[in-house]
């Protein structure tokens, strides 16, 4: 009888401990706060974001990220403004466009992801040596008018004495998704491309990377995490945790090799060989495209507006403090 009683006691103790463990797991799970992110495109350029998800840096902070690719700046901002997303990952210029329309709930940049343009100049023929002068009189496949890639591209051209409107034939009536195909089919002497398409074309002999617009345009808040002002006020602690998770990923990316990063983010690019992902990551790391921390500084903001103004796309100058809030970013790096 004592033996049976002892077995029952042990069983009860085990069940009690197991139930407490389950309760603990349930409590931990219930603390996870969902943040819905709308990313403007799926790109190796956004490697730190995917690292933050895959390495569990967001999860460690109690954040459950729901990531959606919205394919285009207009669609991304529409998702954010209509409450289809909590946070948008897109170019900072979009916040200026929204503000110019006198929005009653402005969109605020709170954490920076990339700090240079992410496109490259690809030539159809490989030159013995490259000079920007070679673009004069050529046909150039550009990006969408008013978008950051196009504005940064024009800024780079002007920096080298090339007038985009008069010194070359600029083609801008092709959808973003079809620009690479148009070039591959024989349209244009030069094209402005994101990775991994630029490196893929180089591998296939379709084109040759001759310059980086990221290196030419300098540091700018090219891609940032942003949210509506109302959401930021109501979810301050959530976004603080989110930014901490992001910063952990930024540090991890800075301190690990391109090969290690490529291995982590490979699930997001199933149709891209991991060796190509590594090549692209290495190229972006070498030109310091990935922001080292989430702080968007005033010099970068002013450079962004200078580029927009040069392109004739700046509705009006906006003071740094109006659309940028570094409070969360500064807390994250402490």
UniProtKB/TrEMBL annotation:
The lineage of its organism: Bacteria, Bacillati, Bacillota, Bacilli, Bacillales. It is found in: Periplasm. It comes from the Bacteria. Its main location: periplasm. SUPFAM superfamilies: Periplasmic binding protein-like II. This is SsuA/THI5-like domain-containing protein. The keyword Signal applies. Belongs to the bacterial solute-binding protein SsuA/TauA family. PANTHER family: ALIPHATIC SULFONATES-BINDING PROTEIN-RELATED, TAURINE-BINDING PERIPLASMIC PROTEIN. The keyword Signal applies. Residues 1-23 form the signal peptide. GO terms for cellular component: periplasmic space. Keywords: Signal. It comes from Fictibacillus arsenicus.
